[in-house]
Automatic annotation (TrEMBL):
Keywords: Cell outer membrane, Membrane, Signal. Residues 24-234 form the SusD-like N-terminal domain. It comes from Sphingobacterium haloxyli. InterPro entries: SusD-like_N (IPR033985), SusD_RagB_dom (IPR012944), TPR-like_helical_dom_sf (IPR011990). This is RagB/SusD family nutrient uptake outer membrane protein. Belongs to the SusD family. GO terms for cellular component: cell outer membrane. Pfam families: SusD-like_3, SusD_RagB. Residues 344-521 form the RagB/SusD domain. It is found in: Cell outer membrane.
Length: 524
């Protein structure tokens, strides 16, 4: 049973923080009350930090607010051409991303960038307030320490999302409280942004409790912070640091979900249906009555599913894998079998209506109760899983200490779980530990493509490795890698240096004269 105290706290109390920010950002504010007046006591501090759980970067991954386009984090992987949106004629940012033509369509793309920018900085501002003012509040020392740790995590998580999207960005560690504050900051070098992100996450690791997220009332834990820190180090190529950070997660109570069978009790179906698995490190929480999962279940099908279900009016592949992408799996991989990660046909048990498609739907997003009964999804969305921790550990250790039995064992666990023929972890480990570092690391990259595509990690991997995965159009399971810039994506477009960053919002450029645009994008 889910513990919903975070959700309730945000909805019932955290609004105060959001409303105060909204009023402050209006050109003609209705209230001149300073934002720091909302950090006067322990209750206000907790309300504001609670609000951060459902603001900014986590929303980019977790919230399916539209039937026509997925969460914001689903758009960057479309740069690879391996995933498409069937509504891209309407949702042009998806089309311009897939065709690598954003530079000539900056105004249209900018509309989405404006929302990402504003909402992330709003969360950062509230986090700054917590970090600045909670030490001055007379309250329980343990609670104060935990709230500051949570605020530092969310500040870091939002800055991490922004720096990956835009490169150098304005960096602030103080809360904007009134119109006298200097709102207009220039861009700060990426290295300095990462320094703050690392420092925040290290402190969060030190002060947050050593418990598991879903068993601890859906509050942040030491292991969530360590996982994010390992992710941050990996993104920068700091492999030894990444290995040390992820070891905290490896040594935690978290573990890989096992297969009970290779059907509906597989690990992948458990991940699809269950929220309280030890594999889940950090997730975005949903509830049927307070905050339901929006359009997530409809992303499992194509448009013809409207005749199969009566609970949703629109169905579409807003984040649909191409057949070429699905060749990343060989035929013996459990994840490509029907009703694991993907599916091609479905019969509604209530009315006998059938859906079938020549292109895969995403079974991972299928929510039986929502689609057949309630029309409201309650399935939480995973942001970090233990499977990703194992993959980080495999790559980071291979790069920092080499390929040994332990390093190979991390990757072997992922491969063995996906093997339909019962090949064991020990057998995979024996094969993998004889590989050279470069070959082993490429095996890790391939498994990241196979294990994490539905959690929107693909483009981050392209950025950090500066390599593009060429998935064979004819040979299942065969993937090679080539330098990203100059590579041809799966839609036939060629990557340019300017494709690696997104444009700064044109609205933000007009508001802040200290900002400069990323190369090749329009400024006005």
């Amino acid at each position: 049973m889910k513990t919903r105290n975070i959700l309730l706290g945000v909805v019932c109390a955290g609004v105060l923080s959001l409303n105060s920010c909204d009023k402050f950002l209006e050109e003609d504010p209705r209230s001149n009350q300073r934002l720091d007046s909302f950090y006067q006591n322990a209750a206000q501090a907790q309300e504001n930090v609670n609000a951060l759980y459902r603001m900014g970067a986590p929303v980019r991954y977790g919230v399916a607010a539209s039937a026509y386009i997925g969460p914001s984090a689903s758009v960057p992987p479309m740069l690879t051409g391996y995933f498409t949106n069937s509504y891209e004629g309407q949702e042009l940012i998806a089309q311009y991303s897939r065709l690598l033509s954003r530079q000539g369509n900056t105004r249209i793309v900018s509309n989405t960038m404006n929302g990402i920018w504003n909402e992330s900085y709003q969360a950062i501002n509230i986090a700054n307030g917590a970090i600045n003012y909670i030490p001055e509040i007379e309250m329980d020392e343990a609670l104060s320490s935990r709230l500051i740790g949570e605020a530092k995590f969310f500040r870091a998580f939002n800055y991490f999302y922004l720096v990956k999207m835009f490169g150098a960005i304005p960096l602030s560690t103080t809360m904007y409280s009134s119109l006298e504050d200097d709102l207009y900051l220039p861009r700060t070098a990426e290295e300095q942004v990462y320094e703050l992100i690392e420092a925040d996450l290290k402190e969060a690791v030190d002060v947050l409790p050593s418990s598991m997220f879903v068993q601890g009332g859906y509050r942040l834990t030491r292991y969530v912070a360590a996982m994010a820190l390992a992710n941050v180090y990996l993104q920068q190529g700091k492999y030894k640091d990444a290995a040390d950070a992820v070891q905290i997660v490896i040594d935690s109570p978290h573990e890989l979900t096992p297969n009970e069978d290779l059907g509906m009790n597989s690990a992948y179906n458990k991940l699809r249906t269950s929220d309280d698995l030890p594999e889940v490190i950090y997730s975005y929480e949903f509830d049927e009555t307070i905050s339901h999962g929006g359009w997530w279940p409809t992303y499992a099908f194509s448009s013809s599913a409207v005749s199969v279900f009566g609970t949703y009016a629109i169905f579409e592949r807003v984040y649909g894998p191409t057949n070429r992408f699905l060749n990343v799996y060989d035929e013996q991989d459990l994840r490509i079998q029907p009703n694991q990660f993907y599916h091609w046909e479905y019969t509604n048990p209530n009315n006998g209506q059938k859906w079938s498609s020549d292109v895969a739907g995403v079974w991972y997003y299928f929510d039986e109760a929502a689609l057949l009964t309630s029309g409201r999804s309650t399935k939480d969305r995973n942001l970090y899983r233990y499977a990703e921790a194992l993959l980080i550990a495999a790559e980071a250790n291979a790069r920092s200490i080499g390929v040994n039995n332990v390093t190979a064992g991390y990757l072997a666990q992922i491969k063995a779980r996906a093997d339909i023929n019962g090949k064991t972890v020990a057998e995979y480990t024996s094969e993998l530990e004889g590989m050279g570092v470069d070959a082993f690391v490429e095996e890790v990259w391939k498994e990241r493509l196979r294990e994490l595509p539905l959690e929107f990690k693909m483009w981050d991997d392209c950025l950090r490795t500066q390599q593009f995965p060429n998935i064979s159009a004819s040979e299942k399971g065969h993937v090679t890698f080539q330098p990203l810039v100059g590579a041809t994506n799966a839609a036939g477009a060629t990557f340019k240096e300017s494709d690696l960053l997104w444009p700064i919002s044109m609205d933000e450029l007009q508001r802040n004269p200290e900002l400069t645009q990323n190369p090749d994008y329009q400024e006005q």
